[in-house]
Amino acid sequence: MLKETQNWSANPVLSVEHLTMRFGGLVAVDDLSFNVGRGDITALIGPNGAGKTTVFNCVTGFYKPTEGRIALRRDQAVADGTLAELTKSGRQYFDGDKGGVFLLERMPDFKITEVAGVARTFQNIRLFGGMTVLENLLVAQHNQLMQASSFTIGGLFGLPGYRKAAAAAKDKAVEWLRHVNLLDRADDPAADLPYGAQRRLEIARALCTNPVLLCLDEPAAGLNPRESAELNELLRFIRDEHGVSVLLIEHDMGVVMEISDHIIVLDYGKKIADGTASEVRSDPKVIAAYLGVDDEEVDEVERDLDVQTGHSASEGGSQ
Amino acid sequence: MEYFLQQLINGVTLGSIYGLIAIGYTMVYGIIGMINFAHGEIFMIGSFIALTVFLILAAIGITFLPIVLLLMVIVAMLCTAAWGWTIERIAYRPLRGSFRLAPLITAIGMSIFLQNFVQVTQGARVKPLPPQIQGGITLMDSPSGIVVQISWMQIIIIAMTIILMVGFSLLISKTSLGRQQRACEQDRKMASLLGVNVDRTISLTFVMGASLAAVAGMMYLLYYGVIDFYIGFIAGVKAFTAAVLGGIGSLPGAMLGGLAIGLIETFWSGYFSVEYKDVAAFSILAIVLIFMPSGLLGRPEVEKV
Amino acid sequence: MADTTSPSAANRPEGAERLSEARRDAMRGEPPYSEAPPEDTRLVRALKEGGITAALVAALTLFFFAFRTDIAVGGLSLTASPVVWIIAIAIAFAGRFLLTYFVFAGDTAVVGGWKKVAAGTGRMPIGKILGVLLLFIALTLPILLPQFLPSQNRYLLNLGITILTYVMLGWGLNIVVGLAGLLDLGYVAFYAVGAYSFALLATNFELGFWVCLPMAGLFAAMWGVILGFPVLRLRGDYLAIVTLAFGEIIRIVLLNWYEFTGGPDGILGIPEPSFFGLEFNRRDGSFSDFFGIEYSPIQKFIYLYYIILALALLTNFVTMRLRKLPVGRAWEALREDEIACRSLGINTTNVKLTAFATGAMFGGFAGSFFATKQQFISPESFTFIESAIILAIVVLGGLGSQLGVVIASVAMIGGIELLRKLTVLQAVFGNDFDPTQYRMLIFGLAMVLIMVWKPRGLVSTRSPSAVYKEKKTIGADMVAQGEGH
Ligand SMILES: Nc1ncnc2c1ncn2[C@@H]1O[C@H](COP(=O)(O)OP(=O)(O)OP(=O)(O)O)[C@@H](O)[C@H]1O
Ligand SMILES: [Mg+2]
Questions:
Q1: Residues C200, C88 share a domain
Q2: Which residues neighbour C261 within 8 Å (Cβ) at sequence distance 6 or greater?
Q3: Does any ligand 1 atom lie closer than 6 A to the CB of residue A264?
């Protein structure tokens, strides 16, 4: 299972460097650095209040980080010097034939989705409840459609160019609805869907923005085991068929361990482990900080902890 | 300098009146999150009741001023409080927990109704009342002939406002009613599950707001000496502006906002132009809100995602 | 941390709001400690309730019914007329007594019944039929009126023009409040900008109505952007109060900038619209002269009627069209959830500005029409009460519903007019009873009652802007309310 070189350091799509986020006196994220590999499913885990959602909010521009750099490389072929150059230039992003590099901490939230191609879902589902499932997915294609309607003028007169784009947008929406198994509910208001379906709809909606990186905040929360398994399938499909890199926050270790190529563990805003599923699983610091341990492993964990007590205690007490 | 001081005194007086009305807005907004548009009308009703009480007392021969004032305050507060209670009961309570704009519309409807009710029953013409409390303290008498004076009326208004402010702050922070109000502000559903009678608490909030507005109405009557059925709208909008400026939901904020609006208005009229004094007040409101979206003393609203 | 604990409460799409409403209803049904002792018979209870109500009404109206102050020679005079007061108390007692005794006997079942009926109405087919019917009546009104009500022809036509003006304003504001969910209490400002820009352009540069109309609309839209830009970051009620303030600022400026706007005197001699260069008068080369028909002043009214009808229909058409375009969909998405919009790459500032500007533009059109119809404007026509009436029309009609606006306009504006005509009441209350005095009084009361009866407005369902297989209307309880929640 182990790859020769780690994909996330060789070919990162997102690099978070020295990210710090303070709310008044509270340091929610503390000097955090990690990479998300292109084409990987990366999981960000940690106990409640560890700062995971805050990291997401910084990456997607909803919070402006106190410190740190968040760089998104849209294409692999970006020259190494570009990022340093961009950082010095004070510009938000560089988007050329050689590939795009985006400094997300400098960009407003909607630009991050529109230009850099980062889409997200929310821990507390945020759908357009009074609009139908189909409409939700059409709203997600706002920017393309806006352009196709020549900023409304063309659309107002029903020009053929716009009509074609509108039909294509609908096709795309229908396509994604098929993948998330919601086609038969396309004309129902989103608020009417059961919880699990709402989660899937939110993912489909995010995908309709054509993201490079998809950030999912606890996508399996509130799902039953069958739905969880379906979600795993869906995430694999997104990664394999559409080449979208996925960054997800998840408490359900079943989901995390099964599908993640790379796991980052956070505790009190600090990174305490970073590696593949098997590496993280056996890391005593993780086990100490995190309660999400499989039943069978409890004994093993306890044995590990006994051996390394002094070590983990000093680590744990240092924050 | 003398002119400045005089304007300052006038501004603080006007600001006190605005502040008292603003408290009603702020309390209601804090507890049920709606703009009680009819609150300005409540103030107007308070001033009409005070006027009528005054005339009745004069007719039956009670003229000893302290007694007259005391009776005016008490009756005006009680009757206006009844109005506040009734309005909440009729126009807002049935809409509790429903659509956010609905109570705003009923509030506007109530405001139109009350204005016209007073117009129909009391006539549309202004009601002048000759000044009852005259004289004051001369603070400064400069050779240039400008006199800085604080009138007894102004002293009464400012003192009364301070007393009421202190009293209400204690009420909110110390009594169980205040605690219930704050609980309802935080989470109405939870408060009711813990045995707080939410409906009663909200009613009492309206009653308190209305009685403060009645005091403001009476002081307006005595200070300016003319009232009509339309004073509620302007004073109401200004007072709401004050509440928002100070940070809606905050009692000291309402007072501070009231003073700010009163001072802006007085100084603008004093130094620039009377016609544009409202423009000045509203512009400052817009500017403050744009740069400090939660007002001067309001808690910043964190947008948690 | 708090955001993880209660997913269902924090989560609107789950229909949590319905749940909480229901829960709150349940709570209201059983307040912890206010039950009357069970041994009270119905009669005793009714008497008690009646007594309380009577006492309350006595306190409320004592200083308004029983005493009246008037200006007299030596200051103010006081007249006492306890009869009216006592009658009011008696009515209150009787009313409450009868209600409690007969209607509320089985608790508040009546209200429950109402709600059920209300939920059943507002289906789409009825709406469509009604819409077509109303359109037909609107189109043929000037032809129908002389046939059926010749004596009232001109009066009713004028009323029709007024109603249509409000329909248009309502539709314009519906974009801002109903679709985009931005609470605008200063809409009248744009109406005023439209009216004044037309009036000033026409009187200063001798431009005609048709040239000025688009300019007035553009001016209003521009003001929408200028005013909107700084304030659109504000949320909910803050936005409301700042828009109200801007409305007032514009009115005060119009009132005081004497050299430019004529101040309180307003602007006189605003030209009437011409029909392709043909004017409406007796002279040669006028409309009647050109077509060889006899001149009648009604022709001008019919023409004005069709202008405002066309303008209103244009507003409706554009709005319906926009709803199906990305902008319109973004407006509605903004009303539903602004944060989600931003997460989808939508520039919400632009979306808000377009809504504001579009609404303002239609307000500007309506304003120019108003100016040309009245031929005289002054700041008095653009007070807050106008904004309130337009907003009331939108909310009473049902946010976002085009048909609702029409129904609400006819009911509210037509209703006010009807009250003016109610001379029947004079027979009851004597000759010095002036029904026009009570117009706004009843208007205000009606606003309260209708809202309490139907908080979501008359037409509260939403029809989707895109359909995959089958068009289903969306119940009001799902649709969000916009800014501020
Ligand atoms: N806008 C904010 N203002 C103040 N504090 C905040 C804000 N957002 C988050 N926090 C705080 O930052 C810390 C980290 O919160 P965060 O939501 O990122 O945790 P999390 O890892 O996502 O937890 P969970 O698993 O419970 O979702 C918490 O203590 C939280 O209270
Ligand atoms: Mg979280």
A1: no
A2: C196, C200, C253, C254, C255, C267, C379
A3: no
Which positions in chain B touch C438 (Cβ < 8 Å)? 116, 120
For residues C197 and C220, what is the distance between their CA atoms, to the nearest angstrom? 8
- Best of C343, C352, C460, C471 to substitute, by most chain A Cβ atoms within 10 angstroms, is C343
Same domain, C300 and C350: yes
* Residues B105 and C391: beta-carbon distance below 8 Å: yes
- Whole-angstrom Cα distance, residue B128 to residue C76? 7
Closest to C416 (Cα-Cα) out of C446, C451, C392: C446
Does C1 reside within a domain? Answer: no
Which chains border A (3 or more CB–CB pairs < 8 Å)?
A: B, C
Size of interface B-C (CB pairs under 8 A): 207
pLDDT per residue as tens, chain A (319 positions): 444 578 777 788 888 889 999 888 888 888 889 988 888 899 998 888 888 899 999 999 889 899 888 888 887 766 667 777 777 777 777 776 666 888 888 888 898 888 888 999 999 899 998 899 999 999 999 988 887 776 667 667 667 777 888 888 889 899 899 888 888 888 888 888 898 889 999 999 999 998 999 999 988 888 888 888 888 888 888 888 888 899 999 888 878 888 888 899 888 888 888 888 888 887 777 777 765 554 455 555 555 555 444 444 444 333 3
Pairwise CA distance, residues C330 & A141, whole Å: 10
Q: Give domain status of residue C395, yes or no.
A: yes
Are the Cβ atoms of B304 and C249 closer than 8 angstroms? no
| One domain, residues C84 and C191 | no
Residue ranges of domains in chain A: 3-117+211-282, 128-209
Query: How far, in Å, from the CA of A52 to the mean position of ligand 2?
Result: 6
Interface test mutation site (partner C, options B89, B108, B203, B304, max chain C beta carbons within 10 A): B108
Q: How many separate domains does chain C show?
A: 2
Ligand sitting nearest the alpha carbon of A291: 1
The tokens of A265 are what?
């563990």
CATH number at residue C218: 1.10.3470
- Nearest atom in ligand 1 to the alpha carbon of residue B304 is 1
Domain segments of chain B as ranges: 2-231
Predicted confidence (pLDDT) per residue in C337-390, tens digit: 889 999 999 998 899 999 999 999 999 999 999 998 888 999 999 988 899 899
Is residue C374 exposed (0-12), middle (13-18) or buried (19+ Cβ within 10 Å)? middle
Is the CB–ligand 1 distance for residue A237 below 6 Å? no
C255 touches chain B (CB under 8 A): yes
Fold of domain A3-117+211-282:
Rossmann fold (3.40.50)
**Which residues span the domain enclosing C79?**
42-104
Give the sign of the dihedral formed by CA C80, CA C84, CA C88, CA C93. Answer: positive
Cβ atoms of residues A214 and A56 within 8 Å:
no
Q: How far is the CA of C232 from the centre of ligand 1 (A)?
A: 28
Give φ, ψ of B279 to 5 degrees. Answer: -60, -45
ipTM: 0.87
> Does residue A123 sit at the C interface (CB-CB below 8 Å)?
yes
Which chain B residues have a beta carbon less than 8 Å from that of C27? 192, 198
Which residue minimizes the CA distance to atom 1 of ligand 1?
A: B304
| A46 ligand 1 Cβ < 6 A | yes
Can you tell me whether residue C270 is helix, strand or coil?
Answer: coil
| Model pLDDT for residues B150-183, shown as the tens digit of each residue | 888 899 999 999 999 898 888 888 888 888 888 8
